[in-house]
Amino acid sequence: MDIAIKDIIKKENLVYTKTKLMTDNVLSYCPGCGHGTAHRITMEVVDEKGIQEQTIGIAPVGCSVLAYEFMNIDMVQAAHGRAPAVATGIKRVMPEKYVFTYQGDGDLAAIGTSETIHACNRGENITIIFINNGIYGMTGGQMAPTTLAGMKTSTSPFGRDLHSMGNPLKITELVAQLPGTYYVTRQAVHTPAAVRKAKRAVRKAFELQAENKGVTFVEIVSNCNSGWKMPPVQANEWMEENMFPFYPLGDIKVDGELVKK
Amino acid sequence: MTEEIIIAGFGGQGVLSMGKILAYSGIMQDQEVSWMPSYGPEMRGGTANVTVIVSDERISSPVLNQYDTAIILNQQSMDKFEKTVKPGGLLLYDPNGIVHHPTRTDINIYKIEGARLASELGNAKIFNMIVLGAYLKIKPIVKYENVVRGLKKSLPERYHKLIPMNEAALQKGMENPVPVNTL
Amino acid sequence: MGELKLMKGNEAIAEAAIREGVDAYFGYPITPQSEVIEYLMMEKPHERTGMVVLQAESELAAINMVYGAASVGRKVFTSSSSPGISLYQEGISYIAGAELPCVIANVVRGGPGLGTIQPSQADYFQTVKGGGHGDYRLFTLAPSSVQEMADFIELGFEIAFKYRNPVMILSDGMIGQMMEKVELKDQKPRWSADEIKAMHGSWATIGKPESRERNIITSLDLDPHKQEKHNHHLQAKYRQMEKEEVRYETFDTDDAEYLIVAYGSSARIAQKTIMLAREKGIKVGLLRPITLYPFPEKPLAELASRMKGVLSVEMSAGQMVEDVRLAVGCSDIPVEHFGRYGGVIHSPDEVLEALEQKIIGGK
Prior knowledge:
The structure holds three protein chains of three kinds. Chain A is of the alpha/beta class. Chain A has one domain: Thiamin diphosphate (ThDP)-binding fold, Pyr/PP domains (Rossmann fold). Helices cover 38% and strands 18% of the residues of chain A. In chain A, strands 2-1-3-4-8-7-9-10 form an eight-stranded mixed sheet, with helices on both faces. A two-stranded antiparallel sheet of chain A has the order 5-6. Chain A is globular, with a radius of gyration of 18 Å. The termini of chain A are far apart. Chain B is α/β, with parallel strands linked by helices. Chain B has helices spanning 15-28, 75-81, 114-120, 127-138, 144-154, 163-175; strands spanning 2-10, 32-37, 47-55, 67-72, 85-93, 108-111, 178-181. The B-C interface holds B 20, 23-24, 27, 32-37, 39-40, 59-66, 153-154 and C 4, 6, 31-32, 117-118, 173-174, 177-181, 265, 268-275, 345, 347-349.
C-alpha cells in the first residue's frame, strides 16, 4: 500500500508543531546538540506568554552567535562576553521590556566574567540563559573555563591539568552568592523530562523578570558531541556520568535565598 | 581691553576660586573670559595656578607664557612667574613666606599682607578675597558691583550667607595694597 | 539668548547632554574627564528628564552598554580619556559595523600607555584612522572652546542619527578642564517611545510586532560576499560624509603668506601666535579643521596653493601633518609639523619660533 505525504499531513495526525517564534531557517547546530532545544524552549516561553513584541534577546559570540537567525524576535548580537553589558544598556532605557542574554561558557565565564558578575551584582532586571558544555564549540573544541579536570580538548590535548591550567569554574554557584541575583538554577535538555523542567525554569525566570526582582539565571548543562568527539547518545551518557556530578542539576537560589542542600 | 593674569600659590589658598570669581565678574559685564587651571595631583596640597583672561574680544590662547599681571602667593610661584610678567605689567604678592622678594625694575610691584589681614579678621578662608580686593584696587578691570554679582554666581546657594564676610575682605584688600616699585 | 554660565568643558558637555534630551550616559571615571559623570550624577538627570546615568564596571562594559541602548534607537552618550578610549575601540568597531548612532567624547591626555593626565592631541591617528578593527570611519568633531563642547552634542547627535554612525568629540585635557563662558540651549524633551518607533522602528530592536519582520542589530555576516556588500554600503555613507559634512574655520587668511593648520586647543594657541607674528610683520593665517574626519582637504589645498609654507601644529609628535601633506599634495612649499607632546602644551611663542625656523627661515 502506497502512502503519500499528503495522506500523513493531516490535522488529526499532528502531534507536535514548532512555535512560530522559531524561524524556518535551518539550525546551524550539529545534530545532537542541545542548543536547538534550549532555543526552542526559550521561544516557546516567549510565545506562550504572548510577549514577542516585549522581548529583546542578546546573542553572544560562540556557537549561538547566530541565535538571531533562529529566534523570531528583535535581537542584538554582542561582542564576545559583553552581552550582560548590552542587556544592561537596553533594559535601563526600556525597563518595561523582557531582556535576556543567551551565552555560552566561554562568553559568560571567561572573557565576559566581569560583565557577568557586575550585571548580577547590580541586580539588573534581566534573564541570563547560560549554556555550559565545558568546551569552545564554535572555534573547534578548545578548553573552556568550565572544562572538567582531565577533560581533553584541543588546547588541553592530554586532559585539563588543574595545576597548570586552573580549575573548572562554577560560575553559577558564584553568581548565586551575589545579592543582585534572585533566581539561579541549573538545568539540562537531554531527556524529555529534563526539557520540561528546563522550560519551567525559563518561564519562571521570565515571570520574575517582570517583577523587577533582579537577575534570573538559568544554566543549562549541555553536550557538545562534536567537541567531545562522541556520537550524540554517548555524549549524553558522558554528560550524565561526568558533567552532572561536578555541575549538579537543580535550583541554587530561589526567591533570593540560597537553597540549602 | 584684554587682561591676562596668572594666579599662583599653594593648593588650598583659594587660588582657583579667586580666578573663578574674577572670571564670573567679567561675564557679569559682558566680557569674554577664560579660566585655565593647572590640574592633577599637585593640586592636593602642592602648588596650584590658574590663568585667567578677561577681554572685550574673543580670547585666543587660554594658556600663555607672558602675563599682564601675576598674583603670587608662595615662593615657588615667585621663582617661576616673576620673569613671566610683561614689561610694564603688574606683580602683586603676599610677602608672607616669601624669602626672595621680586627684584625687577621694569614692572609695577605691589604687596598685600593677605595672610596677616585674614588672620586679623579671624578667618583664613577669606585670604583670597583680600588679595583679589588689592588687585582690583590697582587694576579695576571689573566693577565692584560685578565682583559681588560674580561672587553670588560662583558660590553655591548654601554659602550665600558668607557673602557679607567676603565683601568685607574685598574692602580690606582694596584699602591695603602697598607699592614696592612703581613705574 | 540661552542661559549664560561659566563652566568647565567637561561640565558643559554634560549639561548639554541633559538639555539635548539624551536618554542615557554610561561611563567609567578617568582623569581628566571624570567631571562629566560627576556632574551628571550631581545633577540628577533622572529627575530632570528621565535620563539614565550609570557608572559601569569598566570601559569595556560602558561602551557595550552604549551599544545596547543605541540598538533600541535611543540617544546615548559616553565619555572617557585616552587609555579608556583604547578600551572602547572594540565596541566602537561593533557600533560602526552594526550602524548604530551614538556620541563619544575623548578628553585626550598624554600617552602612550598610562602616560600622563595632562592635555595631548596624540589620539588623532586612533580616532580618524580606525582605532578598532575593520574598514570603518568615526565621524570626528574637534571643539576648540567650552562653547563648542556644549554645541557639538547637538550637532553630534544630528550627524550620528543622520548616518547611523558613531560620532567622536575629540577634545583634550585643556578644553575639558578650562572654564569659559557658555551659552546653554533650552531643554529639549526626550523622544517618546512613539517618536522612536516612528523614526527608528525600521531598524531599532524595540520589540517585534506581528506586522514586521524582526530587527537584528549585528555586525556579523559569515558570507564574505554579503560582508563585502555591507562594506560597500558603509563606504558609500563615508563618501557622502566627505562630500557633505566637512566643517572648518579660517582666521586671517585673506592676506596671509603662511598658513598654520591646527585643531582644538592648538588652534586657540595658534591664534595668539598669529597675533604675535603680525606684530612682527609676518602675515600668517590659520585653518582650523572642525571635522577631523572628514578632513577639510579641499579648502586646505586651495589655501595652500597661495601660501609660501604650511605649519601643522598639534600636541603630538606629528599625526595630522600626514593629512595636511596629503591635502597639499606635491608642491615646492615646505609643509612641516610642530608640537610639544606627552602632556606638554606648546606656548604661542614656541609656535611662532617654529614657524620662523621651519617654514620661513628654512626649507
